[in-house]
Each structure stands twice: as C-alpha cells, then as structure tokens.
Amino acid sequence: MLRRFCLLLLCSLLGFAPAAHAQTPDAEPVALRTVLQEALRNNPDVESAENNVTIAERNASVGNAGFLPELSVQARYNETISNTDQQFQGQAPESISGARSTNSGADAELSWRVFDGLGGRFATLNRLQAERDAEQQRARATTEQLLTDAALAYYAVVRAQRQRSVLEETVAVSEERVRIAELRNEVGSASDLEVRQARVDLNADRSALLRQEAALESAKAELNRVRGRRTTATDFTVAEEITIDETLTTNAVRTALQQANPVLQQAQAALRAAEQERRTLRAERFPALDASLGYGVNRTESESGFVQESTNYDFTYGLSLQIPLFTGFDRRRQRQNAQVRIRNAELAVSDTENELFAALTQAVAEYQRRLEVVALETDNLQMARDNVEVALEQFRLGDISSIELREVQEQAVRAESDLVSARFQAKQAELTLRELSGTTQSTLLSP
C-alpha cells in the first residue's frame, strides 16, 4: 500500500501521471496555425482594412493620375413646330401652320493633356501609390496586432490547461494519501489528526482544481472570441507545451523594426504622400497644354424655308493652352498648407521612431529577463523533483510524516506552476518583439 502511494506521488510530480481530462486518440488538439487562420478569416477589422487596401490600390492607377486620354460621345435630337408667315419678293404672302423641323446629330471627342507643368501627373501617381502603401501598412498593423492577441489567447489556454493537469495530479495523490491515512488509522499507526489533515489538504486541492477549471473555461471562451466563433463550446484541447524562441537578438530585432514595422512604414508612406502633393501643386504654376480631336454628324430637316434638309460631317482638331496667372492667392495657400502637412508628417515619423525604439528597449530587456526566469524555474523544478524522491524514501523508512511529505509535494506543485507561468510570460515577451519587428505573420504563419 505504501509503495503504491509513493509510486503514484513520484510519477505525478515527475509529470508521468495521466491527467483526468487527457484527450482521447481521436481528439486532435487545435493547432496555433488553425487558430490564427480562423482569426484572420473571421475578424471584421481585418476585412475592413483589406477593403480599404483594395480601394487604395484601385485609386493608384495611371488613369486616375491623368495619364490616359478621355473619350466622350454625345448624341442629340431636337424637334420644333412652327407657324410661319413668309413673303418673298414678287410673290404672294404664304402662311404655313404646324411646320416641323428637326435637328439631330452625334459627336465624338478625344482629349488628352500633352503637358501638365513639369511632372504633375507623375507626382499625382506617386502620391496615390504612397497612399496605397500607407493603407497596406495600416492593414498589416491590424493583422499583426490580431495575430499577437490570438497567439496570446491560445497560449493562455495552454497555460491554464497545463496548470489544471498539475492540480488533477495533485488531487489524485491527495485522495490516495487520505485512503492510506484512514487505513493506517484503523490499524492504529496514524492519529486522527493525520487523517483530518489529509482530508483538509484534499479539499484544498479540489478547491484549487475547481478554480483552475473555471479559469480554463474562461480562457477557452476568450480564445473562441478571438477566433470569431459564436459558440459556447469549449470541449477542445490545445498544445501541451509553450515553445519559446530563445534566439532573438537586439540587433536583429532593431534591423527588422526599421525595415518592416508596419506603424513606422505607414508614417513614412504618409510623408511620401505629403511630399508628392507639394510637387503636384508646384506643377500647377506652369502652363498646361491639351490636345483634342473630334468628329461630328449633324442633320437638319425643315418643312418651311428654302433648305428642306441638310447634313454636315465635321472633323475638328486643336490645341488648348492654359496659363495660370492669378487665382486669388489660392495656389499659394495650398502650397503653404502642403508644406505644413509635410512638417507634420516628418514629426509623426520622428515621434513614431522614438516610441518604437523605446518600446524595443523595454521589450528586449523584458524578453531577456523572462528567459532567465524560465531557466531558474526549470532548475527549481528539477530540484523540487529531486526533493520529492528523497522525501519519498524518507517517508517509506518512517523518517518523516505524511504532513512533511505534503510540504515537499506542495513545493513541487508550486515549482511546476511557476514554470508554466514563466514560460507564458517569456512567450508574451517574444510575441511583443515579433510585433515590434513586424514579423509576427511571417513567423507564426510561415509554411
């Protein structure tokens, strides 16, 4: 009996005892990649951001920038009813009532701006492309934030699930301890105090397990929300362990931040758009030359007058030169405002860089500290497990009581729980660095 209890306690605290909620072979755990894909597919903010990108991409076209010619076609038809009194020389007067006359025709015109003032259209196209880039980076920022939140929600379930397993194993050991204490009490080798203490410890473990199960259900509900699932079902499992990338370095993250951070890229794109807007306004100070080409058909029919019907075929072409001389200082106002917008965009870039690099410094320090804590907690857990083995041997020999053994058991459980929490916090620090460097999506969803 004693040997069975010792074996159960040793196996549970060394991580070999099966959990009461262990998954069945056909219940595959939900993978992180699946969660992230569902979050991206079902999140309305991501869809809205992608729609804005689509609009910006359509706007960034040569046609919208004014490079392509414009073709227009016009058709017309007019009918007039007239009462006419006519008198020709040497003839008697003539009156015509209800005389109808019609005029119909069609015209086609092709116009194209040949010169627009030293690159105005190119500046417009560059501005539209910069605005498109800004929308793309804004969508990336939304995606990166969502993926970080979804990954944290996923690993929160992993943490809660692992801590529940630890408590389930603790309850199993405490139940066996109560059973042994009761049997020993019956044969007179254990006191009533020892039995009551074993029951108190069991109830405490069961209470802790119930609280942890509630925490696990809450974490799963939050994960369902992030996944975009409108369901109360939480009968799923996730991965057993939290994996941490310990290879991130300050220089690598700093370089990635400068090159790929979507918030910084968005601010830089906004600056480029403001600069191109100023170029467009400068081009408007110069003359603009338009070329046009047209063809028209006009037909007239009349029941009165000398000409009964007439058909004209017209071919026209020409050039139009516009020279801006004075616009009520409006262009001057626009150029001054454009210069202010450029300055604001420069300030936004500088402020964004300061905030990001400060956040990077803090995140790197947090990441390194959390890795050190994980290493310490790992060593602490190993020492706690070693203590369990020694305590079990002493308990078997009768050198310590079950209450002293309980203390060793609690230390091992706390060490296990602390390690799980430490790994979660280290993963949180890693994901923060990923988001700052703009590599969350490429890392978590890489093939």
What does this protein structure show overall?
Residues 84-103 are annotated as: Disordered. It comes from Longimonas halophila. The protein is an alpha+beta fold. It has one domain (2-68, 116-286, 324-444): Outer membrane efflux proteins (OEP) (Up-down Bundle). It has helices at residues 2-13, 32-42, 44-59, 62-65, 120-186, 192-227, 250-260, 262-283, 330-397, 402-437, 440-444, and strands at 70-86, 94-115, 288-302, 309-322. A hairpin with a 7-residue loop joins strand 1 (70-86) and strand 2. Mean pLDDT is 88; it is low at 13-26.
- Give the rounded overall mean pLDDT: 88
Question: What percentage of the residues does DSSP assign to strands (E)?
Answer: 15-25%
Write down the overall geometry: elongated
β-strand number = 4
H/E order of the elements?
HHHHEEHHHHEEHHH
As residue ranges, the low-confidence spans are 13-26
The total number of structural domains is 1
Helix content: 55-70%
Q: For the record, what CATH class applies?
A: Mainly Alpha
In brief:
The protein is an alpha+beta fold and 447 residues long.
Properties at a glance:
alpha+beta; porin activity; efflux transmembrane transporter activity; Outer membrane efflux proteins (OEP); 447 residues; four-stranded antiparallel β-sheet; membrane; single chain; TolC-like; 64% helix; OMP_efflux
